[in-house]
Amino acid sequence: MDRPMRVAAIHDLSGFGRCSLTVILPVLSAMGVQVCPVPTAVFSTHLGGLGEVEYRDLTDYMEPALEHYQKLQIGFEAIYSGFLSTKEQIGHCLRFFECYPKALKVVDPVMGDHGKPYRTCTPAIQRRMGELVAAADIITPNLTEAAVLLGEAYPFAPLTRAQGKSMLVRLSERGPGQVVMTGVKLATGEMANIGYDREKNAFWAVDCDYVPVSYPGTGDIFASVLTGGMLTGDSLPMAMDRATRFIEICIKTTFGYGSDTRYGVMLESCLPELMRRDVPERYHIF
Ligand SMILES: Nc1ncnc2c1ncn2[C@@H]1O[C@H](COP(=O)(O)OP(=O)(O)O)[C@@H](O)[C@H]1O
Ligand SMILES: Cc1ncc(COP(=O)(O)O)c(C=O)c1O
User: Fold this and answer.
1) Tens digits of per-residue pLDDT, 212-259?
2) Which residues lie with the beta carbon below 6 Å from any ligand 2 atom?
3) CB 171 within 8 A of CB 139
4) Which of 16, 20, 113, 26 is nearest to 58 (CA)?
5) Is the CB of residue 176 less than 8 Å from the CB of residue 131?
6) Ligand 1 touching residue 269 (CB < 6 A)
7) Is 108 near ligand 1, meaning CB less than 6 Å away?
8) Any idea what DSSP says for residue 165?
Protein backbone atom coordinates (compact mmCIF):
# COMPACT_ATOMS: atom_id res chain seq x y z
CA MET A 1 0.00 0.00 0.00
CA ASP A 2 1.37 3.43 -0.95
CA ARG A 3 -0.24 5.19 2.00
CA PRO A 4 -1.23 4.60 5.64
CA MET A 5 -4.53 3.00 6.62
CA ARG A 6 -7.25 5.61 6.34
CA VAL A 7 -10.33 6.17 8.51
CA ALA A 8 -13.37 8.38 7.96
CA ALA A 9 -14.17 9.54 11.50
CA ILE A 10 -17.77 10.72 11.85
CA HIS A 11 -18.03 12.59 15.16
CA ASP A 12 -18.62 16.06 16.56
CA LEU A 13 -15.77 18.53 16.97
CA SER A 14 -15.72 19.84 20.54
CA GLY A 15 -13.24 22.71 20.62
CA PHE A 16 -12.36 22.62 24.31
CA GLY A 17 -12.46 19.70 26.73
CA ARG A 18 -10.60 16.93 24.92
CA CYS A 19 -13.24 14.62 23.51
CA SER A 20 -14.53 13.43 20.12
CA LEU A 21 -12.49 14.59 17.08
CA THR A 22 -10.18 16.65 19.29
CA VAL A 23 -8.77 13.39 20.74
CA ILE A 24 -9.54 10.97 17.89
CA LEU A 25 -7.32 12.85 15.41
CA PRO A 26 -4.12 12.87 17.52
CA VAL A 27 -4.65 9.30 18.78
CA LEU A 28 -5.03 7.76 15.34
CA SER A 29 -2.27 9.90 13.82
CA ALA A 30 0.11 8.79 16.59
CA MET A 31 -0.76 5.19 15.69
CA GLY A 32 0.18 5.81 12.06
CA VAL A 33 -3.40 5.87 10.79
CA GLN A 34 -4.66 8.72 8.60
CA VAL A 35 -7.90 10.34 9.76
CA CYS A 36 -10.37 12.08 7.51
CA PRO A 37 -12.67 13.90 9.95
CA VAL A 38 -16.33 14.19 9.01
CA PRO A 39 -17.62 16.62 11.66
CA THR A 40 -21.30 16.20 12.49
CA ALA A 41 -21.45 19.38 14.58
CA VAL A 42 -19.11 21.96 16.05
CA PHE A 43 -19.37 22.68 19.78
CA SER A 44 -17.36 25.31 21.65
CA THR A 45 -16.87 22.74 24.44
CA HIS A 46 -18.21 19.27 25.20
CA LEU A 47 -21.62 19.07 26.86
CA GLY A 48 -20.40 17.90 30.26
CA GLY A 49 -20.73 20.83 32.67
CA LEU A 50 -18.94 23.75 30.97
CA GLY A 51 -21.97 26.02 30.69
CA GLU A 52 -23.93 27.28 27.68
CA VAL A 53 -22.32 25.73 24.60
CA GLU A 54 -21.97 27.54 21.26
CA TYR A 55 -23.13 25.09 18.60
CA ARG A 56 -23.48 24.65 14.82
CA ASP A 57 -25.13 21.59 13.37
CA LEU A 58 -23.45 20.07 10.30
CA THR A 59 -25.99 17.38 9.40
CA ASP A 60 -26.35 18.95 5.92
CA TYR A 61 -22.60 18.74 5.33
CA MET A 62 -22.30 14.97 5.65
CA GLU A 63 -23.89 13.71 2.42
CA PRO A 64 -22.17 16.26 0.10
CA ALA A 65 -18.83 15.48 1.78
CA LEU A 66 -19.40 11.77 1.10
CA GLU A 67 -20.26 12.53 -2.54
CA HIS A 68 -17.06 14.53 -2.89
CA TYR A 69 -14.95 11.66 -1.52
CA GLN A 70 -16.69 9.25 -3.88
CA LYS A 71 -16.04 11.52 -6.84
CA LEU A 72 -12.35 11.69 -5.90
CA GLN A 73 -12.31 7.90 -5.41
CA ILE A 74 -10.83 8.34 -1.94
CA GLY A 75 -10.59 4.93 -0.26
CA PHE A 76 -11.22 4.27 3.44
CA GLU A 77 -10.20 1.12 5.29
CA ALA A 78 -12.53 2.00 8.17
CA ILE A 79 -15.61 4.10 8.83
CA TYR A 80 -15.82 5.01 12.50
CA SER A 81 -18.83 6.79 14.00
CA GLY A 82 -19.39 8.22 17.49
CA PHE A 83 -21.45 11.02 19.01
CA LEU A 84 -24.38 11.86 16.68
CA SER A 85 -26.74 14.68 17.52
CA THR A 86 -29.65 14.14 15.09
CA LYS A 87 -31.36 10.99 13.83
CA GLU A 88 -30.66 12.11 10.24
CA GLN A 89 -26.92 11.84 10.96
CA ILE A 90 -27.42 8.14 11.58
CA GLY A 91 -28.88 7.81 8.06
CA HIS A 92 -25.79 9.58 6.67
CA CYS A 93 -23.49 7.17 8.55
CA LEU A 94 -25.41 4.28 6.97
CA ARG A 95 -24.75 5.85 3.54
CA PHE A 96 -21.02 5.92 4.31
CA PHE A 97 -21.25 2.22 5.19
CA GLU A 98 -23.05 1.45 1.91
CA CYS A 99 -20.51 3.36 -0.16
CA TYR A 100 -17.54 1.59 1.47
CA PRO A 101 -18.74 -2.02 1.83
CA LYS A 102 -15.21 -3.39 2.38
CA ALA A 103 -14.31 -0.92 5.15
CA LEU A 104 -14.20 -1.98 8.80
CA LYS A 105 -17.34 -0.45 10.31
CA VAL A 106 -16.78 0.71 13.87
CA VAL A 107 -19.73 2.15 15.79
CA ASP A 108 -19.29 3.73 19.19
CA PRO A 109 -22.99 4.15 20.02
CA VAL A 110 -22.53 7.23 22.24
CA MET A 111 -25.89 7.68 23.99
CA GLY A 112 -25.37 8.00 27.72
CA ASP A 113 -23.47 7.08 30.85
CA HIS A 114 -24.03 6.03 34.48
CA GLY A 115 -27.46 4.59 33.66
CA LYS A 116 -28.84 7.75 31.99
CA PRO A 117 -29.13 8.84 28.33
CA TYR A 118 -27.41 12.17 27.45
CA ARG A 119 -29.89 15.05 27.08
CA THR A 120 -29.20 15.21 23.31
CA CYS A 121 -30.03 11.52 22.86
CA THR A 122 -33.71 11.51 21.93
CA PRO A 123 -35.81 8.31 21.76
CA ALA A 124 -35.59 8.60 17.93
CA ILE A 125 -31.78 8.61 18.07
CA GLN A 126 -31.87 5.64 20.45
CA ARG A 127 -34.07 3.70 18.01
CA ARG A 128 -32.01 4.52 14.91
CA MET A 129 -28.77 3.74 16.72
CA GLY A 130 -30.01 0.14 16.64
CA GLU A 131 -29.98 0.28 12.82
CA LEU A 132 -26.42 1.57 12.79
CA VAL A 133 -25.31 -1.12 15.21
CA ALA A 134 -26.94 -3.75 12.99
CA ALA A 135 -24.72 -2.65 10.09
CA ALA A 136 -21.49 -2.47 12.15
CA ASP A 137 -18.57 -4.91 12.37
CA ILE A 138 -17.44 -3.73 15.83
CA ILE A 139 -19.36 -1.81 18.49
CA THR A 140 -18.02 -0.30 21.73
CA PRO A 141 -20.96 0.55 24.03
CA ASN A 142 -20.51 1.33 27.72
CA LEU A 143 -22.89 -0.51 30.03
CA THR A 144 -25.56 2.22 29.79
CA GLU A 145 -25.49 2.10 25.99
CA ALA A 146 -25.51 -1.70 25.96
CA ALA A 147 -28.68 -1.69 28.10
CA VAL A 148 -30.34 0.90 25.82
CA LEU A 149 -29.49 -1.13 22.71
CA LEU A 150 -30.89 -4.30 24.28
CA GLY A 151 -34.01 -2.46 25.51
CA GLU A 152 -33.25 -3.48 29.08
CA ALA A 153 -33.03 -1.67 32.40
CA TYR A 154 -29.51 -0.51 33.35
CA PRO A 155 -27.94 -3.16 35.59
CA PHE A 156 -26.92 -1.21 38.71
CA ALA A 157 -25.56 -4.32 40.43
CA PRO A 158 -22.17 -5.70 39.33
CA LEU A 159 -22.42 -8.29 36.56
CA THR A 160 -21.60 -11.95 36.90
CA ARG A 161 -19.48 -13.46 34.17
CA ALA A 162 -22.55 -15.24 32.76
CA GLN A 163 -24.51 -11.95 32.63
CA GLY A 164 -21.63 -10.15 30.91
CA LYS A 165 -21.27 -12.90 28.31
CA SER A 166 -24.99 -12.99 27.72
CA MET A 167 -25.11 -9.23 27.03
CA LEU A 168 -22.15 -9.51 24.62
CA VAL A 169 -23.74 -12.38 22.71
CA ARG A 170 -27.15 -10.72 22.51
CA LEU A 171 -25.58 -7.49 21.24
CA SER A 172 -23.70 -9.46 18.62
CA GLU A 173 -26.96 -11.11 17.53
CA ARG A 174 -28.10 -7.59 16.51
CA GLY A 175 -25.41 -7.64 13.79
CA PRO A 176 -21.81 -6.85 14.80
CA GLY A 177 -19.40 -9.81 14.83
CA GLN A 178 -17.25 -8.15 17.52
CA VAL A 179 -18.62 -6.44 20.60
CA VAL A 180 -16.63 -4.64 23.29
CA MET A 181 -18.40 -3.38 26.43
CA THR A 182 -16.51 -0.74 28.39
CA GLY A 183 -16.55 0.19 32.06
CA VAL A 184 -18.21 -3.04 33.25
CA LYS A 185 -18.30 -3.56 37.02
CA LEU A 186 -17.93 -7.28 37.66
CA ALA A 187 -19.13 -9.28 40.65
CA THR A 188 -15.47 -10.16 41.30
CA GLY A 189 -14.97 -6.50 42.28
CA GLU A 190 -12.97 -5.66 39.14
CA MET A 191 -13.87 -3.05 36.55
CA ALA A 192 -13.16 -4.46 33.11
CA ASN A 193 -13.56 -4.01 29.40
CA ILE A 194 -15.05 -7.20 28.04
CA GLY A 195 -15.19 -8.37 24.43
CA TYR A 196 -16.65 -11.06 22.22
CA ASP A 197 -15.67 -12.33 18.80
CA ARG A 198 -18.59 -14.28 17.32
CA GLU A 199 -16.67 -15.97 14.53
CA LYS A 200 -13.98 -17.23 16.90
CA ASN A 201 -16.51 -17.84 19.69
CA ALA A 202 -14.05 -16.18 22.06
CA PHE A 203 -14.62 -13.94 25.09
CA TRP A 204 -11.94 -11.59 26.44
CA ALA A 205 -11.49 -9.30 29.41
CA VAL A 206 -8.99 -6.59 30.29
CA ASP A 207 -9.12 -5.42 33.90
CA CYS A 208 -8.96 -1.68 34.52
CA ASP A 209 -6.95 -0.21 37.34
CA TYR A 210 -9.85 1.96 38.48
CA VAL A 211 -9.15 5.58 39.49
CA PRO A 212 -12.03 7.23 41.39
CA VAL A 213 -12.61 10.04 38.92
CA SER A 214 -14.37 10.47 35.59
CA TYR A 215 -13.17 12.46 32.57
CA PRO A 216 -14.95 13.27 29.31
CA GLY A 217 -13.47 11.70 26.21
CA THR A 218 -12.27 8.40 27.69
CA GLY A 219 -14.81 6.45 25.63
CA ASP A 220 -13.60 8.23 22.47
CA ILE A 221 -9.95 7.53 23.27
CA PHE A 222 -10.80 3.88 23.97
CA ALA A 223 -12.66 3.38 20.68
CA SER A 224 -10.03 5.23 18.63
CA VAL A 225 -7.09 3.25 20.06
CA LEU A 226 -9.13 0.07 19.49
CA THR A 227 -9.79 1.09 15.87
CA GLY A 228 -6.15 2.04 15.31
CA GLY A 229 -5.02 -1.27 16.78
CA MET A 230 -7.37 -3.31 14.61
CA LEU A 231 -6.14 -1.48 11.51
CA THR A 232 -2.47 -1.99 12.30
CA GLY A 233 -2.34 -5.70 13.06
CA ASP A 234 -3.73 -6.20 16.58
CA SER A 235 -6.10 -9.03 17.40
CA LEU A 236 -9.29 -7.94 19.21
CA PRO A 237 -7.91 -8.68 22.72
CA MET A 238 -4.60 -6.97 21.90
CA ALA A 239 -6.42 -3.85 20.71
CA MET A 240 -8.68 -3.88 23.82
CA ASP A 241 -5.61 -4.20 26.02
CA ARG A 242 -3.71 -1.42 24.20
CA ALA A 243 -6.72 0.91 24.54
CA THR A 244 -7.29 0.12 28.22
CA ARG A 245 -3.64 0.59 29.13
CA PHE A 246 -3.32 3.86 27.23
CA ILE A 247 -6.36 5.40 28.96
CA GLU A 248 -5.06 4.24 32.30
CA ILE A 249 -1.82 6.15 31.66
CA CYS A 250 -3.79 9.24 30.56
CA ILE A 251 -6.05 9.09 33.62
CA LYS A 252 -3.27 8.51 36.13
CA THR A 253 -1.18 11.32 34.63
CA THR A 254 -4.10 13.75 34.75
CA PHE A 255 -5.24 12.66 38.22
CA GLY A 256 -1.68 13.08 39.47
CA TYR A 257 -1.66 16.72 38.40
CA GLY A 258 -5.11 17.26 39.91
CA SER A 259 -6.41 19.03 36.79
CA ASP A 260 -10.03 20.11 36.45
CA THR A 261 -11.81 16.90 35.40
CA ARG A 262 -14.07 18.80 32.96
CA TYR A 263 -11.02 19.65 30.84
CA GLY A 264 -10.43 15.99 29.93
CA VAL A 265 -7.25 13.91 30.16
CA MET A 266 -3.74 15.24 29.47
CA LEU A 267 -3.46 13.47 26.15
CA GLU A 268 -0.59 15.66 24.92
CA SER A 269 1.81 14.31 27.57
CA CYS A 270 0.82 10.71 26.96
CA LEU A 271 0.78 10.37 23.17
CA PRO A 272 4.40 9.10 22.92
CA GLU A 273 3.22 5.95 24.73
CA LEU A 274 1.02 5.08 21.74
CA MET A 275 3.97 5.18 19.36
CA ARG A 276 5.88 2.49 21.25
CA ARG A 277 3.78 -0.34 19.87
CA ASP A 278 4.78 -2.86 22.48
CA VAL A 279 2.92 -6.18 22.52
CA PRO A 280 -0.02 -6.06 24.95
CA GLU A 281 -0.16 -9.00 27.36
CA ARG A 282 -2.59 -8.10 30.14
CA TYR A 283 -5.77 -9.45 28.54
CA HIS A 284 -7.27 -12.74 29.62
CA ILE A 285 -9.96 -15.16 28.58
CA PHE A 286 -13.32 -14.14 30.07
N1 LIG B 1 -11.85 6.28 36.29
C2 LIG B 1 -11.31 5.37 35.50
N3 LIG B 1 -10.35 4.53 35.94
C4 LIG B 1 -9.79 3.63 35.12
N5 LIG B 1 -10.13 3.48 33.82
C6 LIG B 1 -11.09 4.29 33.33
C7 LIG B 1 -11.74 5.27 34.14
N8 LIG B 1 -12.63 5.94 33.38
C9 LIG B 1 -12.56 5.40 32.16
N10 LIG B 1 -11.64 4.42 32.12
C11 LIG B 1 -11.26 3.62 30.95
O12 LIG B 1 -11.80 4.21 29.79
C13 LIG B 1 -12.71 3.30 29.18
C14 LIG B 1 -13.84 4.07 28.54
O15 LIG B 1 -14.44 4.87 29.49
P16 LIG B 1 -16.01 4.83 29.73
O17 LIG B 1 -16.28 5.83 30.80
O18 LIG B 1 -16.47 3.42 29.94
O19 LIG B 1 -16.52 5.28 28.33
P20 LIG B 1 -17.68 6.28 28.01
O21 LIG B 1 -17.04 7.62 28.08
O22 LIG B 1 -18.10 5.84 26.65
O23 LIG B 1 -18.72 6.06 29.06
C24 LIG B 1 -13.13 2.39 30.31
O25 LIG B 1 -13.62 1.19 29.86
C26 LIG B 1 -11.82 2.23 31.05
O27 LIG B 1 -10.94 1.35 30.37
C1 LIG C 1 -20.15 16.74 22.49
C2 LIG C 1 -19.62 15.45 23.04
N3 LIG C 1 -19.10 14.54 22.19
C4 LIG C 1 -18.62 13.37 22.62
C5 LIG C 1 -18.63 13.03 23.96
C6 LIG C 1 -18.12 11.67 24.30
O7 LIG C 1 -17.30 11.59 25.35
P8 LIG C 1 -16.93 10.17 25.98
O9 LIG C 1 -15.73 9.72 25.25
O10 LIG C 1 -16.68 10.51 27.42
O11 LIG C 1 -18.08 9.23 25.79
C12 LIG C 1 -19.15 13.95 24.89
C13 LIG C 1 -19.13 13.68 26.33
O14 LIG C 1 -19.03 14.58 27.16
C15 LIG C 1 -19.66 15.19 24.40
O16 LIG C 1 -20.20 16.10 25.24
Assistant:
1) 999 999 999 999 999 999 999 999 999 999 999 999 999 999 999 999
2) 12, 14, 19-20, 43, 46-48, 83, 110, 216-220
3) yes
4) 20
5) no
6) no
7) no
8) H
Question: How many Å lie between the centroid of ligand 1 and the Cα of residue 250?
Answer: 11
Measured CA to CA, the distance from residue 237 to residue 275 in angstroms comes to 19
Minimum CA distance residue for ligand 2 atom 11:
219
* Ligand found nearest the CA of 85: 2
Amino acid identity for residue 230 in this structure: M
**List of domains in the chain:** 6-267 (3.40.1190.20)
Distance set, CA 228 to CA 83, 90, 202, 240 (Å): 18, 22, 21, 11
Note whether 174 and 130 are within 8 A (CB).
Answer: yes
Q: How confident is the model at residue 172 (pLDDT cuts 50, 70, 90)?
A: very high
Average per-residue pLDDT for the chain: 97
ipTM over 0.85: yes
Pocket of ligand 1 contains residue 113 by CB under 6 Å: yes
Q: How far apart are CA 118 and CA 174, in angstroms?
A: 23
Q: Which atom of ligand 2 is nearest to the CA of 219?
A: 9
